[in-house]
TrEMBL record:
<dbReference type="GO" id="GO:0005975">
    <property type="term" value="P:carbohydrate metabolic process"/>
</dbReference>
<protein>
    <submittedName>
        <fullName>Beta-glucosidase/6-phospho-beta-glucosidase/beta-galactosidase</fullName>
    </submittedName>
</protein>
<dbReference type="InterPro" id="IPR051923">
    <property type="entry name" value="Glycosyl_Hydrolase_39"/>
</dbReference>
<dbReference type="InterPro" id="IPR017853">
    <property type="entry name" value="GH"/>
</dbReference>
<dbReference type="Pfam" id="PF00232">
    <property type="entry name" value="Glyco_hydro_1"/>
</dbReference>
<dbReference type="GO" id="GO:0004553">
    <property type="term" value="F:hydrolase activity, hydrolyzing O-glycosyl compounds"/>
</dbReference>
<dbReference type="InterPro" id="IPR001360">
    <property type="entry name" value="Glyco_hydro_1"/>
</dbReference>
Amino acid sequence: MFRGFIFATGIENSIPTIDHGRTRVDEMEKCGHYRYWKTDFDLVQELGIRALRYGPPLHRTWLGPGHYDWSFADEVFNDLHRRNLVTIVDLCHFGVPDWLGNFQNPAFPELFAEYAGAFARRYPWVQLYTPVNEMSICALFSALYGWWNEQLADDVAFVTALKHLVKGNVLAMRAILAAQPEALFVQSESSEYFHAENPSAIGPAEIRNARRFLSLDLNYARRVDSVMYEYLIDHGMTRDEYAFFMNNNLKHHCVMGNDYYQTNEHHVAHDGGTYACGEIFGYAVITRQYYDRYRLPVMHTETNLCQGPAGDEAVRWLRKEWANVLSVRNSGVPIVGFTWYSLTDQVDWDSALRFANGNVNALGLCDLERKLRPVGHAYRELIANWSEVLPTQSVCLQVPVLYPQDYDRARACDIGAADVLTLGGATAAPRNAD
């Protein structure tokens, strides 16, 4: 069983469409994963990483209602099982198959839940899931900024996308739990903050700082504040739809995943316009805000920085983020893991995937030729130095996670994850109060 702090990386599997649906941005294809997936898994193990954020390409796997092509998924997930890697399965990452259209489609939540349930039944040894990645960012970029998928830019479209994404996530969690009762959900979401540029910008900044919590409020059945409730109702959410979220509380199955990049903090002008301001508060301060709101175990689920012209910028960012993780831990927040995202360099994230320019972004632990970058060497060293230290600290909560081959043992003995942990002398993590 998995006893320690979770050091993770991920394979970038974003699949939004641009050009009004005419162009699919498939990061697995752009980054060469379909060709080099075995090498990628080798690299994960060589770095000493035991947990991988990973998901099959949704648009290639989910061909229609109840119609799936599991050929690639079978190949890679059987190999992950053989390697005994803990997998945090990322089922929907910024896009849907062409036949489903986009996130304005009201059929998405129920149909996606069927897909999630089918996946969980096919791979019963998988325990950790992120059903829908970064629901807030997906809704913003698709339906308020006009960049991806439906490419709309108004509040009604944003609320519509958001309610469909979060409902899809909630229903998917229920479907997964029906197939895998020991499932845990690491909800990767962007942790943001908006700073008022001047006194006249305080109002717009307060509205944006309230809106940043909407996806997680709905997902965790937490009542939104009065201003956000009016915003939701005024822009297309019905009272019954809101009641659905408040009446479906699966918080006790969840770990709150917080993503943080240099671009997560923003200055707000008096007219409500925003621009990136770089790191001001930092991960530790902002994560504490999210923890105080939801009181859930935390995992740092994404960060990166380009290697830069000096060659050490990413290494320095890794060390800074790790210092923030330790600060979160030392403040009493139960933090369970850290992730450098992703394993390899990415393509076209310099334009937020809005344009298919083919620009390689030096963000990975290794480059696209699968050669380790300095940050890859630094991350391997960090893991080796800290892996045996953190589990001795009481505020580093140990979640009841099985390795894939532990699941085989549990199934052979007809027992569950908590029983395997008890047999191994560990204590399962407490369920969180609602």
